[in-house]
Amino acid sequence: MALKRRPAGWPLLILSIIIYFPLRLSAQDLQVHFIDVGEGDSILIISPGQKAVLIDSGSGKAGDKVGDYLKSQKIKGLNLVIATHPHEDHIGGFQNLIGTFFFALFTEPGFGANTRVYADLLTGLRKNDVKYKIARAGQAYTVDPGIILSILAPEDPLISHSRSDANNNSVIARLNCLDVGFLFMGDAEGEAEKRLMANNPDLRSEVLKVGNHGSKYSTSIPFLDRVKPRVAVISAGPNNDGHLSQSTLDKLIKRGTKIYRTDENGDIVISTDGRKIMVMAEKTPVPAEMKAGED
User: How many CA atoms lie less than 13 Å away from 211 in the CB half-sphere?
Assistant: First the structure.
């Protein structure tokens, strides 16, 4: 099903309002939940037709939080589950979810890792007969009519000899709902951004899930100039483990991008009807000195 995109040059008016929980969400809107899992990623997509997609699960210690969050949203099964790459802060929580929630399809880059957490994940998938697929650029999933999740990376040959091959071979996905796009970068770094830009002339997205927890190795100036996000979401822990960089924040601020952070805002939900977006956050950020990574 071809996605109808806005004509080039058509100015899109975006309504971006931050509202603090609790708030009743419209069942007619697409919802993207950025779950506060500390240092890690976990993103839940709920469509107007009640289809559910989960991107990453946080670390092992975050698995209970993610499971409770899914239950709070009345989720019993997931139509699509994506593990962006094999690092523990992205896949560790799946052990708490496999067998508790039905996974219709699980996809990951197949990059592999010689770690217990990755081996345990594959074992859990096999034991529960979960349908498995290697993620590659060019794949697309119709979540609901008019709502398409496209896999933009990785692609063969996989990136090698980079600072972090696991990060740079992250699954990168873009979710489009009519005129509104969400770009999910996993932990992709500069090498992945360059390949993504070379192969995708149109990356403009209203919402950017910032790569690698806002580290200095991701979110280059050319990349931001191509994506032009109105809203950026950074998933980070309270001490951010050296990831979150002031230089990344400065680049976003300079472009007028509104920044939301799980370490400050807690759970963040962005809803859209395909024309405008609304940002809802669990808590008001408390002013504090940022513990940034090295610049």
Answer: 29
